[in-house]
Amino acid sequence: MEFRVHGLIGPALLVALLAALAGLAMAYPSMLWAGDDYSLQYLAAACNAGARLNDFVMYPSTTMAYHPAVPFYVFSWLAAFAAIGSGAIGADLPFFDRLIGNAPVLFASLKACGIVATGLLVLVCWRSLVRLAPTAIVLLALALYFAVTPQAMFRAVYPLTETFALAVTALFTFALVRFAVAPLGWWPHVFAGLACAFAYLLKVSFLFVYCALLVAFFYVALFGAYRQSALWVRFVLSHAVGITVICAVGFLFIGQEYFSALLRLHWAILTHGAGSEANGSLADVFGSIAVSWRSGATAIPIVLLVAPAQLLAVIVGTKTGRIPPATATIAVGASIAALGSVAAVLTRFGDTYVLAVAATIPLLCISAWLLAGSRSARSAVGAVAACLALGSAWRSVPAVRELFLDKTEVSFRAEADMATIHQRMRPDAKGLFLYRVSMPGYGKGYVSMHCGVPGITGALLKANRPEQSSMARTVRDPDYVIADKGYNYPEAVIRSGKNLDPINLVATTWRDGDEIVPLADAWLIIRRARTSGSSDR
Q1: Residue 385: closest CA among 153, 152, 137
Q2: Which residues cross the membrane (predicted)?
Q3: Residues 330-381: pLDDT tens digits?
């Protein structure tokens, strides 16, 4: 059994993938405000970058304050520029209003750019893998990425930090393969440093590629016939390159204050200190695996079965001398990267984080094919990969539909809620939109606060507009309040007197005499008990 494909099959499959993603985006429409925080962070990042370019001032950006998500930040502004051109540059309230007013166009551009970026990343990964195995095996390996988690298709249309996991895989593969072939070359170690720097600047959890390259280095140092002094000089070089790039981008682009805070936060995460929010027990870990499986993802079980088997094969093959050193080094790096990604995800679980695991599977598949050695064994690996791709797709396709459908339904419900509010309240009524309400009233305040541009935030507060977000408010006694049902449910919770918006400093509570109107995803609380001097505290 041979795996051969016509030269046009690969491009045809890529076109089919992009068409499928575009079809999903059009079949399941949604609005930016009904997305998650990443949709709002997209606008905040675009606003911040536009202000930086306009004023030549490095305004701090909260988009890069946690992950650091530098690629997502740059991508956000490029998507905005693709939508409105030079309109994506400015630093005043009219510029902010221009972004908000063009939110539908900007959101469509974000989706389109996410689809295009995914296609480009697939091409880059294909280029990094195609010299290792036949085209058919590489196509199967890349198909596994989209099959093993529904988030792969979903986050190609709704981008976030993990959307760029394939870029980490491509850089890691590029560095690992060159190091395996020429451990004493200078460029492989330079590429290793660049790959680790990119991984960190995307998200600290992607540093599993550093662990994988480190283990691969020690494998070569222990079992390769190379001068130790030469290897260690190059080892230092890779670290110097990585640290230099990280510090340069951190201090010059992210900003000294946020980058210093990032380093402290990431140290806390790596040492399971304050702020790590890590799973605290083995039961939590198994619970995360179960949640991942129920979501339609098969990435974690595949890695937990394949990666240890590959490491065992390398151990046996190294003792018997039956595995070529370069193949063994690639297998070690691929297996450690895959296991490291699982460890990172299970330490702090989220469905979208599984994308990092999925991105390691293509190289894991290729390294399994390389380790197989004989023609018949490699054919068997190809057959198993095809079965895994089909089986995983069978589980994930319904979940993909559910993800897109949920986004559409949330958008429709939010539009219906907004229509009800506009019917019930007069146009000049002061409204306060609390945390995570899927409406522009909340989102505008979120963007203004997180864009980090004082001129915009100050001007918006000074304008004292009727619709205000609890994240950027001047109104003390609103005519009505909108509270998200996800954080305040059932109605008895509203009437209990609890603070309906605990994430912000100003408490917002129910008052006797208020009228409550249930909406689809929110509560409309009309302030009937208006007394002189009364206000939210």
Answers
A1: 137
A2: 70-91, 103-123, 129-148, 160-180, 207-226, 232-254, 297-317, 323-346, 353-371
A3: 999 999 999 999 999 988 888 999 999 999 999 999 999 999 988 999 999 9
Helices 354-372, 135-147: axis angle to 10 degrees equals 150
* Tokens linked to 513: 């005499």
d(CA 221, CA 397): 44
Query: HSE-up of 15 (CA within 13 Å, CB side)?
Result: 5
Q: What would the two tokens of residue 373 be?
A: 């050695």
Q: How far apart are CA 312 and CA 1, in angstroms?
A: 26
Number of alpha carbons in the 13 Å side-chain half-sphere of residue 211: 16
Going by C-alpha positions, the residue among 108, 89, 92, 18 that lies closest to residue 49 is: 89
| Tens digits of residue pLDDT in 63-85 | 898 789 999 999 999 999 999 99
d(CA 30, CA 411): 5
**Both structure tokens of 241:** 């390159």
Residue 372 near residue 3 (C-beta atoms within 8 A): no
Q: Identify residue 412 by its one-letter amino acid code.
A: F
Q: Classify residue 229 by burial, with Cβ atoms within 10 Å: 0-12, 13-18, 19+.
A: exposed
Q: Where are the alpha helices (DSSP H) in 321-439?
A: 325-347, 354-372, 375-424
Q: What is the pTM of this model?
A: 0.93
Quick one: which of 337, 336, 519 has its CA closest to 418? 519
| pLDDT tens, residue by residue, 208-236 | 999 999 999 999 999 987 888 999 999 99
Phi and psi angles of residue 480, each rounded to the nearest 5 degrees, phi first: -155, 160
| 415 touches 427 (CB < 8 A) | no
Two tokens at 252? 């010059």
Tokens of 453: 């541009």
CB 24 within 8 A of CB 397: no
Indicate the SS3 state at residue 110.
helix
* Cis, peptide link before residue 301, omega less than 30° from 0: no
- What does the chain come to in residues? 537
Residues 141 and 125: their CA atoms lie apart, in Å, by 10
Beta strand pairing status for 522-526 and 480-484?
Answer: antiparallel
Q: C-alpha angle with apex 397: 386 to 75, nearest 5 degrees?
A: 95
| Mean pLDDT value across the chain | 91
